[in-house]
## 1
Amino acid sequence: MPRLDETAAGVYIIAVTPFTDTGAVDLASTETMVEFYLARGATGLTVLGMMGEAPKLSGAEAIAFTRQIVRRVAGRVPVVVGASSPGFAAMGELSRAAMDAGAAGVMVAPPGTLRTDDSIAYFRNVADTLGDIPFVLQDFPQASGVQIAPAVIRRIVDALPSCVMLKHEDWPGLNKITWLRDAEGMRRISILTGNGGIFLPEELRRGADGAMTGFAFPEMMQGVVDAHFAGDPQRASDIFDAYLPLARYEQQPGPGLAVRKYILARRGAIASDAQRTPRSALNQAEIAEVEFLLARQSDRLAAIGAAPRD
Amino acid sequence: MPRLDETAAGVYIIAVTPFTDTGAVDLASTETMVEFYLARGATGLTVLGMMGEAPKLSGAEAIAFTRQIVRRVAGRVPVVVGASSPGFAAMGELSRAAMDAGAAGVMVAPPGTLRTDDSIAYFRNVADTLGDIPFVLQDFPQASGVQIAPAVIRRIVDALPSCVMLKHEDWPGLNKITWLRDAEGMRRISILTGNGGIFLPEELRRGADGAMTGFAFPEMMQGVVDAHFAGDPQRASDIFDAYLPLARYEQQPGPGLAVRKYILARRGAIASDAQRTPRSALNQAEIAEVEFLLARQSDRLAAIGAAPRD
Amino acid sequence: MPRLDETAAGVYIIAVTPFTDTGAVDLASTETMVEFYLARGATGLTVLGMMGEAPKLSGAEAIAFTRQIVRRVAGRVPVVVGASSPGFAAMGELSRAAMDAGAAGVMVAPPGTLRTDDSIAYFRNVADTLGDIPFVLQDFPQASGVQIAPAVIRRIVDALPSCVMLKHEDWPGLNKITWLRDAEGMRRISILTGNGGIFLPEELRRGADGAMTGFAFPEMMQGVVDAHFAGDPQRASDIFDAYLPLARYEQQPGPGLAVRKYILARRGAIASDAQRTPRSALNQAEIAEVEFLLARQSDRLAAIGAAPRD
Amino acid sequence: MPRLDETAAGVYIIAVTPFTDTGAVDLASTETMVEFYLARGATGLTVLGMMGEAPKLSGAEAIAFTRQIVRRVAGRVPVVVGASSPGFAAMGELSRAAMDAGAAGVMVAPPGTLRTDDSIAYFRNVADTLGDIPFVLQDFPQASGVQIAPAVIRRIVDALPSCVMLKHEDWPGLNKITWLRDAEGMRRISILTGNGGIFLPEELRRGADGAMTGFAFPEMMQGVVDAHFAGDPQRASDIFDAYLPLARYEQQPGPGLAVRKYILARRGAIASDAQRTPRSALNQAEIAEVEFLLARQSDRLAAIGAAPRD
C-alpha cells in the first residue's frame, strides 16, 4: 500500500460517514459514496475526521468502516484516517488498525486543553505513539482552541520526520502558508487546506498543494485546483465564485454537516442524510435556502460552462 | 434629534475611524467618509464599534469624533454610538456625552467574562446606567465569547423597554432570527445583522430589518436590502453574489480591518488606510489578492448592470 | 449488585489508575489500592475519572480495569465508572460493559464544545444512551469549560429520573449547593463534592452529602464528613485545617496528579507513581515541597490527635 | 518621587477602592485604608488593579483616587497604578497622569483576545506607549485567558528595559518562577506573586521577592515574607497555615472581593463593604462562614503567638 508523504496534492475529500435512518453505518452507501468522490476528482480520501462523526462510532465500527473504505478504494487513491483521541493508547490502537487495513496515514489534531507552548511536546508524543506511521498535523484553532504559531509548526516538522502534511485550517491563515513556504531550510511538507474550501484560490497561490475538505461538490475543489495548476487563475476563480454562495452556507459550524449530508443524499452519493445523535437535521427554512442556492448554482455553472457531474 | 426605536431598518454602516499617517484622528476624512456612506445608501451610521478602533481613542477623542460625525450628518440619518466598556461609569459617561452631542442611541456588547446566565442581570445594569437612552444589544459570540440564547434575548427585551434593537451577529444564527420573529407576544425590536453581511439575503428572509455592518461597498447592503423589500430575491442574490468573494475576504478576523480601510482609501472615502496601534497593514500578497478581487468584482457588477458609484 | 441512587453519601474516592514503570496497568497495585481506600473510610469508589487517566487506557483496558476493581471490592461499596466520551456510541458501550461487570452507576461530564443552553438536550441524549443505568452529572466548569446554571441542573434532574447524583465541582459553588437544596419541589439527588476537598466543611454545611474526590489522604474526607454528621463542626475544621496545606498543594491543575501518585506510592497504596504519557513527574523542588508539607502535617495531626492510618 | 525598579520586594498590597453606601468613592476611607495597610507591613501599594474595581471608575475618578492615595502615602512606600486598558491611548493617558501624580510605576495585563505568540508585540507596544515609565507585567492566565510561556517572558524582559517586575499569578506557576530565576544571562526583575497569597511560602523558596496581593490580613504576607527572609521556613509556614483557611475562602473568584471588603470594613480599614455595580454582597450563609473562619483564625494565631494588629 502507498504511504502518505510530502508529495501529496490535489483534493483529499473529508468523507462523511453514511448512516441508515435507524442509525447503523450504511454499508451500501459507503460503497456508492467512495465512487461518487472518486468520480469527481478526489485524489485522496480522509475518513473519521471531525465532519465524519468519528466520535459517534465505537472503536470496532471505526475499524470496520476504515476497512470497507480501503477495500472499495482498492488502491486508486490514498486513504487517511482521523486518529485524534484524548489518549495515546486509543490513538495508537486505531492508527495501527488503520494501517493494517491499508490506510496511507493518519491525521491528528491536538486536544483543546493543550497550552500553546506544549504543542511540540504533544506531537512528539504523537510521533512516539505512531512509530513510523506518517501523520497529518491538523491545525484547526477554531475547533480545537489551540493556536500553533508558524515557528512552532516548523519546529514540529523539523523534529518529527513522520509529520508529512499540514492540514491547514487556521483562519485567517493565508500568511501562515506563506511563512511556511518561505521558511528557509525547512523540510518540505504537503499543505492541504480545509475550512470548506472558502479560501482555496488564495491558499493555492500562497503555496498550498490542494484541499482537504468535504464540500458536497468535490467538483469545486477539483476545478479550482486544476485551473490553478494549469496557470489559469481567472478560470479558477470563475469556478470558485459559482460555488461560493453554497460553500459559504455549508460552512456554518452548526448546521453545516446537515447541509452537506442533505446535498450528498440529494445527489445520490448516500441514501440518507441521517446523522447519529447528537444530530442536527435541516428545518424547512434551511431546506428552502439550500434549494434556492442549488438552483442558482446550476444556472451559474451552466453560464460558465462548468456543470457538475450529476 | 430623532431617537433610535424599533422601526429602524435599512443599512446602518459601521463607520471606521479615519486616522492620518501620524496617528491623529483625521478630521477632513471624517467629513468625506460621512458623505461617502450617505451617498451609497446608509440609513444610519454606527461609530465607535469594534471595527471603529474605539478602544484606541481616549475618552476626549471619542466624544469629539462623535460630535463631528453628528454635526456632519446633520440629522439626515440616526447615529448610533458604541458604548461597550468594562465598567458602567465609563459606559454612562460616554453614553450621556454621545446623546448630548445628538446621537440617536448607543450600542452595548457584554464583556467576555460574563457567564451566560448573568446576561439578563448585566443588561439590567446597562439599562439602569443608561436611563432612558435607547440601546442596541450587540450579540456577537465569536468576538465576545458570550452565548446568549434566544429565550434570554427575549427576556431581556421583555424586561427592558430601552432595548430597541438587536445587532445580530451570532454565527450561525439564522434560526435565532426566526425564533425571535416567531416568539409569540414578544415586543417588537429592530434586528439588523452584522458579520460583514455575508449571510444578508438569508437573514432578510428570516425577518431581519436590514444590516449593520461595515463592508467597504455599502452598495452591496443597499442593493440587497432594496431588492429584498421590493420582493425580488433573485436580484438580491445577483447583487450579493457579485460582492461575495470580496466580502468573504474582508471578513477575515485579523486582516479584515486593513482590507476595509485599504478599499475605503482607494475609493476616496478616507485619505489614508492608517490604523492606530495595534495595527495590521496589508502586505504585498494581500494587496494583490484584494486588487484581483476588485477587478473581478467590477466585471461581474457590469455584467449584471449594478456598477458601484465610484 | 446495588445500584447507585439518591441516598449515596460519605466519601467516594476518585481512584487513580496504577501503572508499572513500563506503562502497563499494575494489577497488583490495583488490589492494594482498593484495600488502602476501603481501610481509610471510602464509602464508594469512582474509577476512570479525569484524575484516573481514563483517556490513556484503551477500551479493552478500561473494561478489564473496571472488572478487577469490582471483583476486588466484592460488594463492600458501590463502584462508579467514568463514562464521559466525545460520542454516545463509546459512552454506551463502556457503560453497559461497566454495569455488566458489576458497577453501581456511571459518571458523565459534558464535552467542552457544548453551548450552555444545550446542556439539557445533551443530558437527555446521555439518558437515552444509558437506558436505565443510573448516572452522576459531573459539573466541573474549570475543566470542561461548560457552565451549567442551577436552574438548568434542576431541569435536568426533573426531566431525567436516571440522574441520581451531582458531582459538584463548580468553583466557587457554595451558593449552587444551597440553591439546589432549597429548590422547592425538586426531586432529591445525592450531591458529592470534588475540587480536591478544599471546600468540604462549607460544602457539607450547605447540604452536600459528602465528597467525591481523590486527595491522597482519604482520612481527611472521612474525618471531616464524620465530624460534620456527628454535629461537631469545630472538630471537622480541626481535621480539615491540618490537611489543608497539602490538599491545596495537591490541587494544582498541572502537577496535582503527580503529587497524588507520589504520596500514594509513598504510603504503599500503589507500587509506583508512574503515569502514562502525557505525564508529569515531580521534580526535586516539588518533592522537597511535598516532604516539607508531609512532615508538618504529621506534627499537626499528632497535635490534634488525628494521626492517619499508615 | 522614587521609581519602581527591579529591587522591589516585600508586600505590595493590592488596595481595594472604598465606596460609600451610595456609590461615591469614599475619601475618608481612602485615608484610613492607607494607614491600615502601612501599619500592617505594606512595602508598596498597588491601586486600580482587578480587585480594585478599576473599570467601574470614570477616568477622572481614577486619576483623583490615585492622587489622593499618593498624597496620603507621602513617599513612605511606592505606589503602583493598574493601567490595563483595551486601547493604548487610554493606557497612556492614565499612566502619564498617574506618574504626574507621583506614582512609582504602572501595571499592565494583556487583553484576553491576545494570541499567545503576539505577547511580545503587545508589550513592545505597551513599552512604546509608556516611554520611560517603569511597568509591571501582570501574568494572570486564569483572569486574562492569555498564556505567556517563561521563554516569552524572558524575551519581553530582555527586549524592554522598562519592564522591571513580574506580577506572577499563573497557576500552577511554581516552576515558572524557578525557570525565570535559573535563566542564564537574563536581566534581573522583581517577581512578586498574587493569587491571594495561597502559595506564598513555596513561591518565596522558588525565588520570588515577595507578594503583591490583597488578602484582608496583610499581616499574613508580612509575617511569611519576614520569616522567610529571616531563614525560618517553619515559622513562615506556621503563620501561613494559620491564615490559610480564610485566605482560601477569600480567594474564590466570585464572592472573593465581597469577602475581602467585608473583613476590611469589620477591621475598620474602610467604612463600608459597598461595591459599585456589578457587585456581589455576602449573603447570610457566607457571613456565617467568614465569621466561623475568623474566630478559628484568632484562636490559631493566639496559639502560635502571632495575633494580628487589630
## 2
Amino acid sequence: MNLMAETTIEADPTVPVIRLTRDFAATPEQLFRAHTDPRLFAQWVGPNSLTTRIDQWDARTGGSFRFVSSRDGEEHAFHGCFHEIRPDRIVQTFTYEGDPDGVALETLRFEDLGDGRTRLHAQSLVDSFEGRDAWLRSGMEVGVNEGYAKLQELITRDAA
Amino acid sequence: MNLMAETTIEADPTVPVIRLTRDFAATPEQLFRAHTDPRLFAQWVGPNSLTTRIDQWDARTGGSFRFVSSRDGEEHAFHGCFHEIRPDRIVQTFTYEGDPDGVALETLRFEDLGDGRTRLHAQSLVDSFEGRDAWLRSGMEVGVNEGYAKLQELITRDAA
C-alpha cells in the first residue's frame, strides 16, 4: 500500500462541486476521530507551512467550529457549523474569513475498505463555477496533499 | 402595493439552485425578526394546512434549529445549523428528515427598498439538478406562497 498516495481531485463538469478521494491506512473510526477531535485536527489540517490553533470547536450535530492557521504572524481564519456528525458522515459549512460572504457545503464520507483501510470521500459544493474554479486554481492541492499526508502519519504514529 | 403578490421562483439553468424573490411591506428588521424569533417563525412557515412547533432553536452564528410541522397527526421534521446570522443575511443548512441524507445550503438576504418595503432574496443550493428539480415538482410553491402571505399578515397585524 502506498501511504503517500496523492489525493484524487475531481471538478464535476455539471455542478459546482469539487470531489476529493484518498485512501488511508486507517479505520473509519480513526479517520472520524482525526476530523472531530480538535487536538488531532489542528495537527494535520492544511499545508506544512502553516500552524493551526483551534479557536472554537463543538463537533456534534448542530455545533460549530473556528480555527486560525498562521505563518510568520500572518493569520487565516476559517469557520462553519456542523450540520451532521455521524460515524460515517460529516456535513458542515465552511467559510474562509478572507472571503467572508463565500461559503461551501462540505460532505465527508468514510468508506470502510476492510483490512484497516478507509477511503475518504470529501465533497465541496459552492454556488458558482467561478468560485469553484478560482479555488481549484489557488494551489489548494498543496494543502490537501500535505494535510492528508500529516493525517496518515499521525494515525500511523499513534498506532505504533 | 399588492401585499398578496406571488413569490418569483427561479430555477437557475447552470447551477442546482432555486431562487425565491418576494417584496414585503415590512422593514428589513421586521423580516429578520420573523426569520429568527421562533415564536414568530412557527406562526408563518409552511402551507396553511400545517401547524408548526419549534423543537430546538438557537438563531445565532454557529447555532442550530429543528422544527416539526404536522397535519392530522402526520409529522414532518426539519433541521439545520445557522452558518451566519447577521441583520441583512442568514446562511443556514436545511434537511427534511424524510430524506435524511439530503441537505440544502440556504442564503436569505433582506434588501431594503425604502418606504418600509423589503425584498427577500432566498437561495437554496443542492448538489444535483435531479434533487433540485424534484423539489420544484413537489408543489413547494404552495407552502412558499401561503407561508409568505402569513408572514406578511403577521407583520401587518403586529404593526396595526
